[in-house]
Amino acid sequence: MSVSREELAPNAFGSRLLALTRPGPAAWQNTVATAVGVVVALLLSSALIAATGGSPAASVQALFQGSVADGTAWTTTLLYTAPLLLVAVGACVSARSGVFNIGQEGQVLVGALFAAWVGLRLAVTGPLLLVAMLLTAALAAGAWAGLSSLMYRFRGVNIVVSTLLMTFVAQQLVAFAVNTPWLLQESRVGDAVVSPQSNPLPVSGRLGSFGEYPDLQVNGGLLLALVGAVVVAVVVARTRWGFRLTMLGLNPLAAKHAGVRVNALGGAALAISGAFAGLAGAVLLASPVGVNRLQPGIAMNIGWDGLLVALVARNRPLLAVPVALLFGVLRSGGGFLAATGVPPFLVDVVKALLVLAFVAPPVVTAVIRRRRAGARTARAERRPAPVAEEVAL
Amino acid sequence: MSAADDISTILSSGIRLTVPLAFAACGEYLAERAGAMNISVEAMMLGAAFGSIATASATGSATTGLLVGVLIGLLIGFVHGNLSHRLEINTFVVGLVLNALVLGLTSYLITVSTFDSHQVAQVSVPWLRDIPLIGHPLFVERWPVYLLLVIIPLTWWLVERSRWGLELRAVGEQPQAADVTGIRVNLRRRQALLWCGALAGLGGAYLAVGEVGSFNQNMTAGRGYIVIAAVIFGAWRLGRTLLGCALFGLADAMRLALPALGLTLNSQLLVVAPYLLALLAMLLFATRHREPRALGQPFERGST
Amino acid sequence: GCASNDATAPQATAPADAGAKTDGGTVPAGQPDVNGDGKVVIGVLSPGDINDKGYYQSFVDTAEAFATSKGWTIIKRGSVNTSEALNAARALCQQKVDMVALGASELRDAIPASEEPVCGNTAWYVPSSDNIQQTPKIVLSTDEADQSMLAAGYAAGLLMKDKGETKAGFVTGPEVDFTTTAAKAFKAGIRLVVPEATLTTTYSGDLNDSAKAKEATQAQISQGVKVIYPYLGGATDASAELANANGVATLTPGTDRCASTKPTFDISVLFSPGDYFKAALEEFAAAKLQLGTEKVWKLGVDPFPTVKLCNGTPEQNKQLETFIADVGSGKIDPKAEVQRLGS
Amino acid sequence: MTEDERARELTPPSAPALRLRGIRKSYGPVVACDAVDLAVHRGEIHGLLGENGAGKSTLMKILLGLVQRDAGTIMHGDDPVEIGSPQEAVALGIGMVHQHFSLIEPLTVWENVILGDTGKIDKTAACDQVREVSRRYGLPIDPLARVDRLSAGERQRVELIKCLRRDPSVLVLDEPTSVLTQAESAELFTVLRHVVRSENRAVILISHKLAEITAATDRVTVLRRGRVVFHSGTADTGPQELARRMVGREVSLGAEAAALGMLPVDGPAPGEPGTPGDGTPPAAAPALRLRDLTVTVDGVRVLSDLSLDVAPGEILGLYGVEGNGQATLGDLLSGLVVPDSGAVEISGRPVDLNRPGALHAAGLGIVPEDRHSSGVVLDMSVAENLVMKSLDGVTRRGFVSRRKMYAEARRLVAEFNIVTPSMDTPVRSLSGGNQQRVVLARELSAGPAVLIAAQPTHGLDVGAIEDMYRRLRDAASGGVAVLLISTELEEVMALASRIAVISSGRITGVLSTGEATAERLGMLVGGVAA
Ligand SMILES: Nc1ncnc2c1ncn2[C@@H]1O[C@H](COP(=O)(O)OP(=O)(O)OP(=O)(O)O)[C@@H](O)[C@H]1O
Ligand SMILES: Nc1ncnc2c1ncn2[C@@H]1O[C@H](COP(=O)(O)OP(=O)(O)OP(=O)(O)O)[C@@H](O)[C@H]1O
Ligand SMILES: [Mg+2]
Ligand SMILES: [Mg+2]
Known about the structure:
A: 393 residues; 15 helices; B: 304 residues; mainly alpha; 12 helices; binds adenosine-5'-triphosphate; binds magnesium ion; transmembrane helix (chain B); ABC_transp_permease (chain B); membrane (chain B); ABC transporter permease (chain B)
C-alpha cells in the first residue's frame, strides 16, 4: 500500500484546499479556452452591434452605467441577482442528483401565483404574511416540480420533457388566475378597465431591504438567496444527505445498492429545485421596490436565465453567486442600452454566447486532447512498422 | 352558411395551422429516432422564419426566401449537431441556449430593420378543389404545402426502409452496438439533425412566407415546443406524430373559428391543450417502451 | 381565514371631477430641459412591439419626429414587460431624461418611480384609461375607449347599412378587459345604425401571432362577415390583407392609415397615443406642460379621438360627422349607449 | 481428429491469410498492445490466450478498424492494408463476433444481420441469405424474429450468421462461450471446425480459459501485458506451459487452476471450507434462505420459484450460463429488484425487500456482478466508496466527519491491501483488481452474516483472482455464509462445497462438489434435472 497524502498532511481539509489552488493542466487549458470563448462571444456581439449601425463602445458604456456605475444601478442589479441566484441554487441541487430540471420558468410562476394568493387572500398581518407567502411559494413550486418526479416514478415520463411541458401549463395557469375575477384578477374600481393582473400586495407582504434608495439598497431577497447558496453548498458538500445526493448523481445504481432511496431522494432534489424557483417567484412578487402584482409576465425569463447561471457555474452553488451577479449586471445594464439605439435584445444574444463560452471549453479541450492523440495515430500509420523477426509458424 | 361550409372552413384553417408543425415534426421525429433529442427546433423555426422574410424582402422572391429559410434551419441543425454530437455538450443545454440566442438575435434584427411582406404563390388544383367539404381545404393552398406529400412519405421511407434509417434507428436504440458494427454514431446523429434543421426550417419559413407573409418578433410563439409535444404524443411513430400535429392544429382552428360560429371556449385551456395532451399521452400509454432507448444520451466510444 | 379579493383592492380614487384635475398642477422650472443639464432628452417606454406599424409604433414615431424637429434626443424602448416597467422607467431617469413617456396605460406600474429621487427632475406623461391615480408628478392623458369605439362601430354600421349587411367581426388578441370592452362599444356603435346587426368577436390569444389572427379572420370571412376590425398589434396587417383580398371592409386600430395601399383600410379610427402625446410635447416645448393635471380627450370636442371614412360617400361622411358632434355636445351619451346596445 | 486433419495442421499453407506486425496501441499511459506480431492461416483455429486486460480485444479492434493503431502493419495476403472502419475490414474478408454489445435488440434478426453493409436494403434477399447461412451451418434462426425475444444462445447464432454471411476469410470470435451452455459451446466449436476444415477459412478464437484453448484450437498465441510472449501449435504445448506463459510465472495447476479457467487437477485441500459435502445442506440453521422467489420482467419469468439455503461457514456455488437469471438474482439481493413473490430470510428473519437498504441492515453484503455500474461510484474517492454503505458510522448530527471517514478508509485500505495513491483518489483511476478490493473491503467491513459474490473475478488477472478466492474462503471460515454466483465452472468447483445449478430462472439441482462432474453439471445447466 502506498502512503496516502492525508497521512502526511494532518489537516486533510487544508490539503484539499491546496489541491484546488494547484491547477492541473486541464484546468489551465480550460481557463484559457474559457477566456478565448468569452472574448469571441464579446467580439461577435460587438460585430453585431457595429453591423447594425450601433457603437459597441457606447453599448459597453451603457451596460456599465446601468449596472454598476453607482448605488442606484447596483440596486437594480441586485434586484435581478436575487431571483436568478435562487433559481440557480435550486438547479444545482437537482443537477447534483443527476436530474435535469428545465422547468424553472414555470416553477417561478407557480411560486409567484401561490405567493400572490396567500398575500392577497390570507387574512394574516405583519411579518407573518411574508413568511407565509415565501413558504407557500416554495411548497407549491416544490410540489409542482415534484409532479414531474412522480410522473417519472410511476410512468417513466422523461423528466426533462415533463418539466419543459409543465412550464407551458404553468404559464396558462397564471394567465387563467389573473383573468378570472374570483381568483386573482384585480378588482374593478368603478367602471375602469381591469388588466390581467392581481391587486398589489399589501405592504406587509413585501420584502424588506437594507440601505436607502437611490443609494445602494440591498433587497431582502438577495440575503435569502445568499443564505440559500451557502446552506446548499454546505449541505451538499458536508452532510450525509449531500453525500447521498452526490452518490445518486454520479451513479444511481450504486446509490440504490448502498441503500439510498433513489426515487425519494431524486424526487426530493427535484422538489427542492422547484422550491427554490418558487421562492424566486415570491421574491419577484414581493420585491421591496417593484410592481408587487401577479402578472403573466412576472417571471421575466428569470427561470430560464437562472438555469443558465447554474450551467455556467457548473452546478456549484457558491460559484453561482458571481455568475448570477454577472447575469444581473447584463439585465440591468440592458435597460440602458436603449439610449445607444441598440435594441435591448442584444443582452439576450450576449447571454447566450457567454453561456456557450463557459460551457464549451472543458468539452472542447477534452476533444482536442482526444483529437491530438488521434492525429498522432494517423501520422504513425504512415510510418512503416519496425519489422519484427519473422514469426515462424 | 351550411354546416358543410363551416367544416370546410375549419378544415382549411386547421390544415394551414398544421402544416408548419407537420414539416418540423417530420424532422424532429427523425432526429429523435436517432436518439438526438433536440429542443432547438423552436430556434430552427424562428430563425428560418426570419431568414425567409429577410431574403424575400431583399430579393423580392418568396421562393428564394423559403430556400434560405431551409438553409438557416440547416445551419442551426449543423451548429446543434456539432456542439452536442461532436463536442458532446449536453443536448438540452445546447437547445436552450440556441433557442435563447435565436430569439434574441431575431428580435434584435427585426428592431433595426424593416421588411416588406411577401408570400409564395397559391396553387389551386382544378376539379379537385370542387370536391365538397375537403376540396377547398386540400386543393387550394400555397404551393409548399404540397411538399408535405413528398416529405412525409420520404421521411417514413428514410426511417423505416432505407439503410440510413436502419442505421439511425440502431443509433437511437443501442449506440454502442451500432458503433462496433461500424456505424458512425455521432455522424448519423449530426445528419439526423441536419434533416431536422432543414424541415424545421421549412416549417418556419412556410409560416413566414407561406402563411403570414411577414415576420414579427417571436412569431413562432412556441410552435417548436408543440412539435416536440407532438412527437411524444405520437409515441415516436410518424403517423401518430402527424396525427398529433393535426390534432393541435385543428384544436387551434376550432378555437379561432368557433366564435364565428357562435361558440366560445376557455382560451387558456385550449392554449395549454397540446402540452397537457402530450403529458397525458406519456402518462396513459407507457411510452417508455417505445421511446428510443438512447434518446437524449450522448455517445462516446468506449463508455457503456 | 380568507379575505375577499376586493378587500385588498387599492383604496383608490373616488374619481374626482375632471375640472378639478385640470385646474391644479405645476409647471416645472426650465421646461423643456427639466433637469437643467443643457439638453432635452425624452424617454419613451412602450409595452408593445414598436415596429408594429400601428398603435405602439405611432407613439414612438410621433415622439421621434417631434424630438428631431426640436433637436432633442429620444430614448425609445419597446416590448417592455409590464413586470419590468418600474425598472425600465428608473433606467430612463438614471440616464437623465427630461421626460418619461409611457406608451400605453399597461405600463402604469412604472408610475411609482416618478416619486423616487432618481426621477426627481423629470416630467411624466402617462396615457390613461380612467383608473390611474393622478399624482402631482404626472400628466395624464385620458381618452375613453367607449367613445372612439362607439364611433368606429357607427362608421362601420354606416358602411354595412348601405350594403345591406348585418354581420361584423372583431379580431383581437387576448381576452382581457380592454379588448372585451372595446368589442362591446364597437358592437353598440354598429347597432346604432343597424339595430339587428351581429358582431363576432374572436380572441386569437396573441396580438402579434399573425398566423392565428389570419385564421380567425378567415373563419369570420367564411361566415359572411363583411366588416372586420383587426384590433391587433403586430398581426394587424396580416389580418387586414386577408380581409382586403376577400373584399371585406377594415378599420384601423388607432392610426390614420387611409393612405395605406397594402393593406388598405376603409375606416381610420384615430385614438393613436402618438397624437395625444404630440399635444403634450408641444406644451412641453413651449414650457407650458402642467404636471399633476389630466387632459381628457373627448370625441367631437378635441381633434382626437376621431373616426373617419376613407372612401365615404358625402352622405355617410355627413352622418358620421353629425354623430361625432352629437357625442361631443353631450346629446349622445356613449356610456349609456354601450350599456344599452353593447351586450 | 482424423489423420488427414492432423496432417494439414502440421503443414500450414505457406502464406498466412493475415499477418500483424509490430502492432502498438496505448491508451494514455496504458500500453494495451506492444509490438504484437501475429499470423493466421487459412484452415486453422488460432487461439489468442491472455489474462483479462492483456490486450486481446484491443488487438482485434485494431484488426476490425474500430481502434486506430499507433504503429505497425497489417498484411492481408502479401499486401499491407489500412483498415479504417469495420466496413473496410469486411471488404477484406474479416468478420468479428464481439465480446459485448453488437446486436440492436429492438431490430429483427435480418436487420441486424445487414447492419453495417452498404447499398440498398433488400429484405427478401436478406432473409433468404439468413436462412441459407443458417441451414448451411446448422444454426436455426427465424430471420423475422426480434432480437430482444431471443435467448443468449440464439443471439450468438445471429452474431455468427451475421459474420458468416459476409463470407469472411478470417473470422474473429472474442470470448464467445461466456454466454453459452456447454452444449451450445460444443455446437459452436463444431460449426467453427466446419468453417475451418471444409471452407478453409481462418478463425481467431479469443479466450482467457485454458481449457477452451487447448480443446478447440490448432495454434495458440499468448499475450501478456500487451506483448506476444509465446506461440506454438496447440498440440505441441500443454496447459502447464500456457499457464506459465500467460501469467508470467510458474503456476500450479492445482490450487490456481480455476483462476486459469481449468478444472482443478486435485480438489481443495481437506479441512478447508470448500470440503466436498454430500449435497445436503449442513445441519446449522441457514444464514441465508431464499424462498420461492419469482420475478417477472416484461411478461417473462426471469426467476421462478427459486429456493436456496446457505449455511454459515459454507460457500454455495450458484452455477449456470449467463442470462439464466443470475443477474436478476444478484439485483434482487442488491435491493435493485423486488420479487413478485417469495421471501428472503437472513439469520432466520424475513427481510422487507421494499425497504431500501434493508438487506444491508439485515447483514447481507454483496460484491455485485458489474462493479462499475453498481459496485462503486467511479468519480468518488476511495475513502468515500469505502464508507458509502456505512455512512451512519462516520456521521455526526447529519454531518459526515472527514476524520472518521479517513480513519475507517485507512484501516480498510491496509487490511485489504488496496493499492491507491491516496484516499482522495477517484476509484476510476484504480486498477480493476483494486476496485474489486474496494468493494469487497466495504462489504466485509460491515461484518455481514451473508456475502453474495456475483462473478467476483470477472475482469481480474490471475493474481487478483487468487486473492479474491483466498478472501472468500477466509470469509467463509470466519462463519460467513457465502453465495458465489458464477458462470465459471472451474471457479465453483474450486471454491464451493455445494453447487446449485440455475437454468432458465429455476434451480435444476444441487450437488456436492464430490458428486459434481462436468457432465452432470452440464446436463443441469441445459435444464435437464439430474
Ligand atoms: N477505451 C479504452 N481507454 C483506455 N484504456 C483502455 C480502453 N480499452 C482498453 N483499455 C485498456 O487496455 C488494456 C487492454 O484491454 P483489452 O480490452 O484489449 O483486454 P482483453 O485482453 O480483451 O481483456 P478481457 O479478457 O477482459 O476482454 C486494459 O488495461 C484496458 O484497461
Ligand atoms: N478507464 C481508465 N481510466 C483511467 N485509468 C485507467 C482506466 N483503465 C485502466 N486504467 C489504468 O490502467 C492500469 C491498468 O488497468 P487494469 O484494469 O488492466 O489493471 P491491472 O494491471 O490488470 O491490475 P489488477 O491486477 O489490479 O486488475 C490501472 O492501474 C489504471 O490506473
Ligand atoms: Mg435635460
Ligand atoms: Mg476483451
